[in-house]
Task: structure prediction
Amino acid sequence: MSQNQERFLGVPVVTLNREALFKDIEERIGRGAQSTLIAINPEKVMTARKNPTLSRLIEEATYQIPDGTGILLASRLKKGVIRERITGIDTMDALVRLAWEREEPVFLYGAEDAVVKEAAVTLKKRYLGLKIAGTMNGFQKDEEKVVEAIRESGAVYLFIAKGSPRQELWIEQYMKDLPDVKVFQGVGGSFDVLAGKVKRAPAGFQKLGLEWLYRLMKEPKRIRRQLLLPQFLIRVMMSNGDKQGS
Result:
């Protein structure tokens, strides 16, 4: 890793802003390097503290993007420099746009069959002429056939919606078998949003970093997950041993 990072309870997050991030990714594509992205929010940091596998997957990713207002707050508390939230779904959209501009194909893997197909339709409408190399639902029993299909498709970008850490474990296991794929991103429920199955928070909530509040209003049962945020910030304030930088 050449780019700078900040660490929160031992979990790294890149300090690159949006423009620098995608410039760096494009440079890596240009020289044939493979890149992996994983979105980091307070919930994932707290989970990683108790889950060595998730912690390792985060550590080994090329880019750990700051997806979560709590990460920005933690950076301010630690006198860091992260000021821009880069959500997983916005990252996916930016990467699809990059693929469209470079005329490189993308592959969507995961979710239900109707959902992943509708997500592809949405992206093709958004980016006319976008090359969708293929789609496959996330209920395949033979992963080797999935890998073969992706390999034969010629995809350069692979988006996997299998939930975390399953999607990251999949990438770790099969990345070496897909040398032509240069960008791997686990996208969680992004296909559901693109397909219109799940509604994203209105733009005003997004701009203010309050998507978590919108989701909580829609799904009050999420309150237990949201309570992790104050726990996370308290632990960050108490963790004087965490050093900024790489």
Summary: The two ends are 8 Å apart (CA to CA). The CA atoms of residues 107 and 133 lie 5 Å apart. The beta strands are 5-8, 11-14, 35-40, 63-66, 106-110, 132-136, 157-161, 183-186. Residues 1-86+210-239 form one domain.
